[in-house]
């Protein structure tokens, strides 16, 4: 399996491991109209809006020390549940079984089932049913685990331990129903290596995920900035992420417009930034975030980009994604005919996205469909550019670190998620080279 696909599978396996790396939040444009992407599908229940309960200690023997158990369903021997986590979160089984189907339409589940159906062709229906139910159970529990952590009901160590148990439970299901060869084909790694991979990922999870400064180790940041200040910033950071969860849900169910979402996100982000400026002096901001600018934009650049503003789009007709590449370098390395082709592909994608937004505003399609089709457009754009440019030229423009991979780019990596091929048919203008055929979930 290629490095790209292996990373995709790891991303799907640990999908949306909340607060596990540097954060990026939109600056002046909290939501992009061409591809609205709510972060999570569930809103915290009423109990999480009350006064936070006392933190659950990771030494709570009754709940957290035993490994996740897998109680089998009477109806299907491959369906099970992590009982200790259900107890930790006080999850009602009947409610979970009723509500988990809502996660069937999430990007991460559609991606996973596409991959399962592609790799495990002719899968036994009973096993496929179990995979669907177990995976939606995983996403349902993970969402509640996120909410409990963000609301302060459980502490960081408990969150990490429960997350590891949840992932190990999920892995045990595949190990019980698949042969070693099938498992390795699905994940790109041997079954016996799964627990070590999970433990390694959890051990590397940062205590404070808002720390952007990559020039100073996180442990040094914790020494240079007083602990109570980091805890206070962490509390407000979690609130901002929880706000984004709620806003994403409201976009998904249609109770909030994109314009309202932008305003709400901007307000939440500004509250976090303002609170950080109140808590930290300038030296401390530099220590934690790298600079005041990094705090305000949610990202740290080690050096200025070679292209400023939208001068690349004005002069070339498309965006240079490699921050180290200048317009002059592109003109020198790529002949004019190829530049015209890339410009055409770029303009076609922009036109298609405008048509998508028109349909969204008219109520003809739902936000989830917009996301899926927009992702398909991105995949088509990338494939067209790859077919036009040499590997060196493609890297020059798009900074693709995996150009040597032989598998076609059917998905594109992002910071914490992977994009999926469309789950609905495209009805808009198609670039010169057709996008990959849309896949549907066979349930």
Question: Gist?
Answer:
With 443 residues, the chain is mostly helical.
The helix fraction, in percent, is: 40-55%
Q: What would the principal axes of the Cα set say about the shape? A: globular
Mean pLDDT: 74
Total domain modules:
3
Q: Sheet bearing the most strands, described?
A: 2 strands, antiparallel
Overall number of strands: 2
**Strand residues, percent:** under 5%
Gyration radius from CA atoms, angstroms: 23 Å
Task: Note the gap between the termini.
Answer: 26 Å
Strand order of the largest sheet: 1-2
Uncertain segments are 1-67, 401-443
The helix/strand order is HEEHHHHHHHHHHHHHHHHH
Number of helices: 18
Structural class estimated from helices and strands: mainly alpha
Essential attributes:
single chain; 443 residues; mainly alpha; 3 domains; two-stranded antiparallel sheet; 18 helices; 2 strands; 55% helix; globular; disordered N terminus; disordered C terminus
How would you explain this protein's 3D organization?
The protein is mainly alpha-helical. The chain has 3 domains: 10-30 and 211-302, no CATH class; 40-203, no CATH class; 306-436, no CATH class. Helices cover 55% and strands 1% of the residues. It contains 18 helices and 2 strands. It has a two-stranded antiparallel ribbon. The chain is globular, with a radius of gyration of 23 Å. The two termini are 26 Å apart. Residues 1-67 and 401-443 have low confidence and may be disordered.
């Amino acid at each position: 399996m290629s490095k790209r696909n292996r990373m995709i599978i790891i991303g799907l396996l640990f999908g949306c491991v909340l607060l596990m790396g540097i954060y990026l939040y939109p600056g002046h444009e909290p939501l992009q109209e061409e591809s609205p992407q709510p972060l999570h599908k569930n809103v915290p229940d009423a109990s999480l809006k009350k006064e936070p309960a006392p933190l659950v200690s990771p030494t709570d023997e009754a709940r957290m020390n035993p490994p996740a158990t897998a109680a089998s369903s009477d109806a299907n021997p491959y369906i099970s549940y992590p009982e200790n986590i259900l107890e930790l979160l006080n999850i009602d089984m009947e409610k979970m079984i009723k509500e988990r189907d809502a996660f069937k339409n999430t990007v991460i589940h559609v991606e996973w089932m596409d991959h399962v159906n592609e790799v495990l062709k002719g899968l036994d229906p009973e096993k496929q049913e179990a995979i669907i139910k177990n995976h939606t159970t995983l996403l349902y529990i993970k969402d509640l685990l996120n909410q409990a952590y963000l609301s302060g009901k459980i502490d960081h160590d408990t969150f990490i331990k429960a997350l590891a148990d949840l992932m190990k439970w999920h892995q045990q299901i595949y190990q019980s129903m698949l042969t070693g060869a099938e498992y390795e084909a699905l994940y790109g790694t041997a079954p016996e290596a799964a627990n070590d991979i999970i433990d390694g990922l959890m051990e590397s999870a940062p205590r404070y995920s808002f720390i952007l400064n990559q020039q100073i180790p996180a442990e040094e940041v914790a020494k240079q900035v007083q602990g109570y200040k980091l805890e206070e910033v962490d509390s407000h950071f979690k609130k901002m992420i929880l706000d984004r969860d709620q806003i994403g849900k409201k976009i998904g169910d249609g109770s909030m417009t994109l314009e309202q979402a932008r305003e709400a996100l901007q307000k939440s982000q500004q509250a976090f930034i303002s609170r950080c400026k109140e808590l930290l002096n300038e030296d401390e901001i530099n220590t934690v975030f790298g600079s005041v600018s990094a705090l305000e934009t949610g990202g740290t650049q080690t050096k200025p980009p070679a292209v400023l503003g939208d001068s690349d789009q004005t002069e070339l007709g498309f965006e240079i994604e490699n921050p180290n590449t200048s317009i002059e370098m592109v003109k020198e390395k790529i002949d004019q005919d190829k530049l015209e082709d890339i410009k055409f592909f770029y303009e076609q994608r922009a036109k298609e996205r405008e048509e998508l937004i028109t349909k969204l505003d008219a109520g003809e399609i739902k936000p989830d469909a917009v996301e899926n089709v927009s992702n398909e457009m991105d995949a088509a754009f990338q494939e067209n550019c790859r077919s036009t440019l040499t590997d060196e030229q493609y890297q020059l423009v798009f900074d693709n670190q995996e150009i040597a991979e032989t598998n076609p780019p059917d998905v594109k990596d992002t910071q914490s998620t992977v994009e999926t091929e469309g789950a609905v048919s495209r009805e808009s203008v198609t670039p010169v080279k057709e996008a990959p055929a849309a896949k549907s979930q066979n349930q």
